[in-house]
Structures are given as C-alpha cells and as structure tokens.
Amino acid sequence: MESILRFLFALHGHSRAAFGFCQLSGLGPHLRGMTTRSKTSAGSRELPALSGSLKKLAHEAEHCRNCDLWRNATQTVFGEGDPHASIMLVGEQPGDQEDLRGEPFVGPSGKLLRNTLEEAGIDLKKVYFTNAVKHFKFEPRGKRRIHKKTSGGEIAACRPWLDAEIAALKPELIVCLGATAAQGLLGRAFRVTQHRGELLESSLARYVMATVHPSSILRAPDEEARHEQQAEFLADFKKIAALKL
Ligand code: URA
Ligand code: SF4
Q1: Contact criterion met (CB below 8 Å) for 61 and 80
Q2: Which end of the chain is more exposed for a tag (fewer CB within 10 A), N or C?
Q3: Whose CA is nearest to atom 7 of ligand 2?
Q4: Helix, strand, coil proportions of the chain in percent (round to 5)?
Q5: What average pLDDT does range 17-22 have in this prediction?
Q6: What is the pLDDT of residues 177-201, one digit of tens each?
Q7: Where are the domains of the chain?
Q8: Closest CA to 42 of 131, 154, 135, 133
Q9: How far is the CA of 115 from the centre of ligand 1 (A)?
Q10: Domain covering 2-242: architecture
Q11: CB within 6 Å of ligand 2 — which residues?
C-alpha cells in the first residue's frame, strides 16, 4: 500500500514546468489494478529499515540472507559509483560477469550502457549504478550460467537495500532500466513501452525515467533493429544529459 500511496502522491502532489517534463496524470486508468509492492516470498523476511552511508550499506549487504539468491551466487553486487551522483541507474540484477567481479554493469550490457552514457555526454563519474536485486539469479546450462528472471518476492526482499541507497544518495534522477526495475520502483502496472523516456514525477527523486534494459538491445534480431534500438536508447540519455543535473 505504501508504494502505491507514494506513487499516487507523486502523480498529483505537485506540478513542475521543466524542460520536457511530462505530467503523468494521464496514467490514471493504468494505475487501476496496480498491485502494491510485491509480497515477500516464502523463505524471505522483511528487512528492517536500513540506513547509513553507501559504503556502510555495501558492507552490510555482503552478509544479506533475506532471500535465497545468495546461496548460489558468488557475492553480493551492491551499487557502485559517486556517492554524490545526481543520477542513479537501476538495472534488474547482476549478470555473470558482475557476479564474478562484484561490480554492477561490467559485462556486455554494462559496456553498451556505459558507452551510450558517454556518447550522450554524461560523465560516468557522476552516475551511480545499481540493481533492483543484488545477487545473480541463474540456471546452470553446461558450463554456462544463464540469467533467470527475478521474482516479485525477490525484488521485494531486496527493496530495502534499494530504498536505503536512494535515501543515502538522494539522486535528482532515477533511471529504471527495463520492466523489472521500472515495475519494482513504480508499481507492477507500469509499462515501459507506454512511458519510455518520459520524465515522470515521483516522490523517489525529482525525476524518474524508465527506458529499456541494454540487454534487450544486445538481443535485437538483426543489425538493423539493433541500430534502431541503440539510437532510441541514446536519445533517452541525450534527454537526460540536457537536464544538466
Ligand atoms: N544487467 C543488470 O541489470 N545489471 C547489471 O549489473 C548487469 C547487467
Ligand atoms: Fe539479500 Fe537481495 Fe541478495 Fe536476496 S538478493 S540475499 S535480499 S541482497
């Protein structure tokens, strides 16, 4: 309930006339039926409210056992970046390489993301990278570990860490990369396809934007589609760069 109230408040609470700013009041119908923050799955507990510096939080999260994902993963992959960053990027979960290195967005989709940010003129040093879920969820397939989609319960179990990161960083803009991050933060009725690239009002930060996950670009069916999707992704980040946060 709390998250839907926060979202509703965010939608109607205040208006702002900023460059390219999009009021979300038209979202009304889509809010109906929107579920509250997903219930924690069996085997996971509600973490107490977490607070403290990002460094302290990262250290504490190393020992998190709040859902079962820690069991098969190598390590917790906490958020990383400038503790004074004005932009927070939120992905779904660490991938294979992130799990091994303990850093977010260092694998193939991370490279695509970082290159896009740089091309848009966003200083990587001013960005904080994190994920909705901090442990890698996978299925072994031969020698490979294949990404497995996180459940609502796992996202809910990990949410206190994300909330604590937002509280510690106080970013001006939160960018949700893909539907998992967007629905985790904005509610399950949120559709990236409908609101992609819009600057939304939210109580989470001055602005929230949702766009696709960079891995979807890597999965494009052919070169032409990939180019097109890459150009749209770049356009989203150019819009962000123009905010000069
Ligand atoms: N994909 C994500 O969502 N997060 C990462 O850290 C890496 C890949
Ligand atoms: Fe804790 Fe999140 Fe890891 Fe689950 S995924 S054990 S909630 S840090």
Answers
A1: no
A2: N
A3: 158
A4: 45, 15, 45
A5: 36
A6: 999 999 999 999 999 999 999 999 9
A7: 2-242
A8: 154
A9: 15
A10: 3-Layer(aba) Sandwich (3.40)
A11: 61, 64-67, 69-70, 76, 133-135, 154, 157-158, 161
| pLDDT for the residue 44 | 54
The model's pTM: 0.83
Residue 5 CA: distances (Å) to CA of 152, 187, 192, 232? 19, 11, 20, 32
The distance of Cα 234 from the centroid of its chain, to the nearest Å, equals 17
Q: 24-28, 75-79, 183-187, 195-199: lowest mean pLDDT where? A: 24-28
β-strand partners of 81? 128
Among 72, 133, 148, 150, residue to substitute to test ligand 2 (most atoms within 8 Å of Cβ): 133
Tell me which residues have their CB closer than 6 angstroms to ligand 1.
91-95, 98, 104-105, 107, 109-110, 131
- C-alpha to C-alpha distances, 55 to 64, 88, 161, 175, 196, nearest whole angstrom: 15, 16, 12, 21, 32
3-class state of residue 108 by DSSP: helix
